[in-house]
Amino acid sequence: QVQVVESGGGLVQPGESLTLSCTVSPRTFNAYTMGWYRQAPGKERVVVASITNYGITNYANPVKGRFTITREAANNTAYLHMNSPNPEDTAVYYCNVYGQIGSARIQYYWGQGTQVTVSS
């Protein structure tokens, strides 16, 4: 059974850095793409950043230059480094992974989400 677990959310002041973590288990899961999405109150869930197993990254325009996505392949873990966050970044952040175990069907999996609140 594939599990996706996020951590690292919380309350931060504007400009204070924060790093989110996302770990996929079991270790035998092949994560081809790992990504972060966010959903603010009353809004749709939107992509924030993604990274492939080749290290190719993509970012949504609102976070370009401020957020960085990285991953540790050996630990099946992805990170979202949030620099210079502002109140508009307040949302529930979800991790999404695309991959498979062995020859099973390739599919998407979601984590349960972690709340990030940016406020003074």
Describe the protein.
The protein is an all-beta fold and 120 residues long. Helix content is 0%, strand content 57%. It is built from no helices and eleven strands. The protein has strands at residues 3-7, 10-12, 18-25, 29-39, 46-52, 57-59, 67-72, 77-82, 91-101, 107-110, 114-118. Strands 2, 4, 5, 6, 9, 10 and 11 form a seven-stranded mixed sheet that branches. The protein has a four-stranded antiparallel sheet with strand order 1-3-8-7, with no helix packed on it. A hairpin with a 4-residue loop joins strand 5 and strand 6 (57-59). The chain is elongated. It starts with a strand and ends with a strand. 28% of the residues are buried.
Q: How are the secondary structure elements laid out?
A:
Elements: E1 3-7, E2 10-12, E3 18-25, E4 29-39, E5 46-52, E6 57-59, E7 67-72, E8 77-82, E9 91-101, E10 107-110, E11 114-118
Parallel strand pairs: 2-11
Antiparallel strand pairs: 1-3, 3-8, 4-5, 4-9, 5-6, 7-8, 9-10, 9-11
Features:
120 residues; 7-stranded mixed sheet; 57% strand; elongated
Helical/strand content category: mainly beta
What's the main sheet like? Answer: 7 strands, mixed
Average pLDDT figure: 96
Percent helix: under 10%
Anisotropy-based shape? elongated
Radius of gyration, taken over Cα atoms and rounded to an integer in Å: 14 Å
| Strand portion | over 45%
Number of helices: 0
Q: Provide the succession of SSEs.
A: EEEEEEEEEEE
